Amino acid sequence: MLRNFIVTSLRILWRNNAVSTINILSLSIGITAFILILLYVHHETSYDKFNENYDRIYRLEGDDYAQVPHRVAILAKERIPEIVEITQLGLPNYIRTFNIFNTEQDNQGNDRVIRTHRIFADSSFFNVFTLPFVKGNPKFALNEPYSAVLTESAVQKLFGDQDPIGKTIVYDHLRRPNGQYHVTGVIRDVQKSHLDIDVLFSFQDSTRWFGCTYLVLSNHADPAVVAKKINDLLPEINVDLANTLANGVEYQNFYLRPLKDIYLSTTATKRLYGKQVNGKLLWSFMAIAVFILLLAIINYVNLTTARSLLRSKEVKLKKVMGSGKGLLRLQFLAESILICFISCLLALTVMQLLLPKFNQLTMVRISLLEYNTPFYWMLLFTAILATGIISGFYPALLLTSFRSVANVKGQSLSGARGILFRRLLLTFQFSISILLIIGIITNLRQLQFARSTNPGFNKEQVVLIKRPGNFEEEYLFKKAFRERLLQYADILKVTSSSNEPLGEQAPSNLEINGLTKILQLKNIDPDYFEVMGIELIEGRNFSWDRTSDSYDHDRWLILNDKISIIINETAAKEYFDESPVGNICRINQLDHGTVEAEIIGVTKDVHFQSLHHKVEPTYFTWRRKSWGWVSVKISQANISETISHIEKEWKNIYGEEPFVYSFLDEAYEQQYTSDERAATIIGYFTILAVTIACMGLFALSNLLGPPYRHER
User: Fold this and answer.
1) Is the whole model's pTM more than 0.85, yes or no?
2) What DSSP designation does 605 have?
3) Which among 76, 365, 370, 479 is least surrounded, fewest beta carbons within 10 Å?
4) Quick check: 698 and 452 in contact, CB under 8 A?
5) For residues 165 and 155, what is the distance between their CA atoms, to the nearest angstrom?
């Protein structure tokens, strides 16, 4: 019987090749789009699942911050038995690319160097995260001071085919003793993790660090109960932080975020690190995929029911010959499943051709080899069967529901209810298409608005350079580099800041009118506002001639010393009823005493980050011995020659340290790269949806003929 169904279905498809082609093409387009998005969603939702304790790992967050002082977790583990393990990563907001050197020279006498990510981690890291070791022992790999664990890719770049165990690597250009680490382990390259892991360095004294803390809870432990117990310790925690931590932060609430929710975040969190995508957007893609498949199924239902008059003779003869409704319905379902099977074969072929471009568009690495398993083939077969049954269920029900007498008289099998249902499906089809078009237009307009909105600073003709090192001598290097650059005519201004201009700044306590407030802190020099084009709306700027405006940590050893600070407009509005200029605040740095800070100016709010983030209360200080970033304002003329000159002076100061630069305007635009990519993806699939709907309408109009003569 099955063979008879297949042969009969193939004959019917061949005789009605025009309608069959439309059905197969629309279904194959729908299935291709659905599978591509399904693969993408599966890829994105599989992050961090390689960890054995995946369901029991949580990140400890404080208030709106993803990073907290490590002492919080230490105290919590001592008091809360449900916490069976903790690991702490040092300052993950600085997980960026760093130069890692192999101290052994190659055949040409040069150090091998790579620019890669590095993380400081404690000895418990491998008790929490499951990373397969190639060499070394995870129990002891990070136990000793100045130990390092590398991925296989990092080892290949640094050591080639040599055994790296016991060899020394350095992560700064001065080869300082506290920058030299011994390789104790090699792990496989880490895939699908929210952490960028290339090199892990050990650190021991984490009690005074800010960073990220991960907890492993015992089996059957309730994370809400554990979070409540941590919050019950808030008074003790805040007192402990005030006594032990520089710039201690006073917390109001702690929260445990599951590991499964970190990569697919749906809430805004400050001081983020690692990889993260918008979980809401991901499910929007899934909804679009379902809609596209529905449009293709609607096409099949409409075209099949519209051909009811042409199928009346077939139904009449089979009923006269004694065929029952059940057998007829199986025949129509077999046709539907066969069309879905052919469409799926075509979709799989097209998908393999499109997958490289799709990977490039979505910036992921999806390989079909990963899904070449019996489980996924069985899943695909089940999906084909389900799609065929869904597509053919209503046509099979409609085409077999009429009495034989009606068929003998040659009446149409459509009927009023078939016409009404078909019109409803058409309305639904084009409603979805219109909604998708409205969605992509709205998305593009929002993106255009974000890019055209004045961020409050001048991002044109500014070159960003990351300086190496974090040490006292850097002040001399910075000063010499600045003086050399300013001698060149096309370099207008040079300024320094402790953080990347577009990055989120470090949280810091500022005591205002006797109350401790958390603001973002940015260390700059007096030329910063002029280089960035930031408007000072009240008061004055820092002055090179006033040493009292600036500070270095040595000056903070003097009790009752005073420095100058500048706050932004948001801080002024939030914490002051009148003009804040002249107000005295207090900054507490445990290692260097407490310093008074006089507010000397107020700047306009600046959107250094994208418009997805609101402007946070911020204060600026001038730290003479700051390190971090150099921002160079250049003229529009001779840009390439100016960059070459900057590189030349860089080599004069920093030697072999690689010169890496970027333009501020390009870096700012990159903040909207993910939004632009999402808009592009939605745009492509919207085009597919509209194409499928138009194909169905075209085929339906040609089948029925204007003006729908069979439906009047």
Assistant:
1) no
2) P
3) 365
4) no
5) 10
